[in-house]
Amino acid sequence: MIKKLSQPxxxxxxxxxLITGIIGIFVPLLPTTPFLLLTAYCFSKGSxxxxxxxxxxxxxxxxxxxxxxxxxxxxxxxx
Length: 79
Description:
Blueprint: H1 2-26, H2 33-46, H3 48-56, H4 61-70
Helix pairs in contact: 1-2, 2-3
């Protein structure tokens, strides 16, 4: 019962963070990756179908997959 109640919450938070993350692609001071990671987490808890859509999307999928592989993709760029 709790899972049924939490699914709409996770999906709503997921869409809000997705919108914020996409805006962050175009606005220089707004980070994109943290919001997309939050979206991936929320969709994985709320809807497997939405999670698969996010991961297979050509705009958001590569960003999340790089983070999943490296955990911190910017750590390699430090001198």
